[in-house]
Predict the structure.
Amino acid sequence: MTRPPLASLKTSMLLLLAAVLMAAAGIFWSHQQDTEARAALQAQQTALHAAHARQEQGRTEARLIAQHIDAYHALIARGFVGEENRLAWIEAVHLANRDARLYGLTYTLSPRTVAPATLAGGLPLKQTRMVVKMPLLVETDLPRFLDALRARTPGVFRVSRCRLARITDTPPQPVNRPELDAECELLWFTVAADGKEAK
Amino acid sequence: MFSHRLILLATPRQIGVLDWRPGRMHWLGEFAADTAGLAAFRQIVVKHAQLPMLLVADTVDEDYRSEILPHVQGHARAELLARKLKQVFRNARFTGAWRQTRETAGRRDDRYLLAAFTDADWLTPWLSVLHRERVPLSGITPLAMACQQLLSKLRAQEPHTLLACRLNNSLRLSYYHNGLLRFSRLIGSDTPTQLPGNVADEIAKTQLYLAGQRILPREARLHVLLLDPSGQLDSAQAPLNADPAFSARLIDMPSLARALRIPDDFLAATPEVAPLAAIAGEAVQLNLAPPELLQRHTEFRWRRSLNLAAGITAAIGLTLTATYWLHAQDLRDQALQIQSEVQRGDARHAAIVRNFPALATRPDQLGLTLALATQLNRAPLDVNALLIPLGQALSAHPEVVVKALTLQDTADGTADITLEARLSDFDGNYRAAMSRIDRFVARLAATPGVASVERLTSPVDTASTATLTGKTTGENAPEETRFSLSLQVRT
């Protein structure tokens, strides 16, 4: 086909150019719309998965709460959850000493510290060191005192270390006089909480 | 839409106009070659100036030559044909060449049909109208070429066919070899062809001429097709069939209408549309129009191609745009549905959480807290349990006097016991004292629950790395037998 003068085809060429530009613009715009819609859908699907996960977590938590709430309240009442209850502990060692019919004791409570992570298991577990010193008649007074303390105290504690030392080097005498010095290091545990209920 | 065109049938006396598109045609009328006819024709042309037009000329002043030329292509062919047309038809304005076939033997030359209107002055007024109105003229072709398409539509298979066609009171005789035009002549209305015998004579004379010119082989039997809407050629069939050189057949109007797919009554009213309808949808093979007359049509084709490209581009763009947009809308609808589902899920979660009691910790830590409390409540350092095996060992060794006892929780399932003691009596025999301590250690090590026993200090440190001091004055004190042990006891 012989090529005619371009001037005579100006309108048609402009028409073609306009069609190409409009088609390209339309395709570009609609493709953008499609991409944005795809991204929005993806975001909503992610949100849906998150909502399902939250819902499932809520159900699980509801089950956990229903299962453990009473025992947890009991722990709060015992003073294991929340602030430390030093008065109760002092009363407990005093009463335990009396229950074991011992001769009094001295105690030292250290500031509360963070418990070892291996023991805490991810919980905000704190520990308060209490050193108890008391005279004993015989060695078996010590386990009796500790058993009495366990029976008396509402809190949770562990015996970390105990030392028994003879006061005099004389042989045991058949009199009611303490011949042993006991020094025990107790660790009182509490789980820190920031909820109202624990305070 | 793209095949819509006007087909003009021009004779020296008049011009007829057929408005044609696939499956539909309309005869716009005939216009005499006078001032009024030209004016009316101009009006028709103005009305359809945007349509391409093909002019089919029916004139006695035409000439056909068959030529065998070397096979060349491209520009060389154009130059060769231009030279040949100039040589054969000299100064004729309307000339053309059609490469019909290629020889199968020898140099395999090309066979051309050269044609020209030797006197076409009568065409000038019509062409002037077309030129003035800037009509895209697609070509000028002789009526015999239109008749060739007519034969094709009629499926005439014979190798040597002579079509006798009577239109506009003129008889046209066209010879086709294997369906391709080789020769045509028009016998005007002033010739007495009304008599059947004369028509048969004209056909016989034509046959003799064709044989004489070696266009038709002498021994070939000529198949004559008689086409005459007025029926005047019917009586020529018998005399022709009486001659063994001919076999004649009439083409009836219904068969023709069926072949051309046009209504019977339309064909009966305007029989001259038959060859025009046959060529209307076909490409022009033999175009006698000089290039300057085809300029508008070239522009028209370019313009139409560009417009078509624009239309296709726009359609593709629109389709893709619509597809993407609809898909985007569908995705948005899905996103909205999911969003409402998310909101419903959040509302359900909020309803669950709303009923939670106020807790000092996360719900998932409740169980952990309880487990930790249980674990801590189990006393790893059971003093009573630790003292029992120690007491048993001490009972077996009353000479050992305990000075101090330290119990230490190691938090790995064992407890450390540090025992500081001395022997109750000592006679200065360190060997005997060490032996008693060894027995006590052995007894402790054999006690159930004791994992290991280690001696920390002894009355006498006999290690070669240590500094050892003492005296042998004879004064012996039990304090000199102090020793300390470290025990690991399983809790």
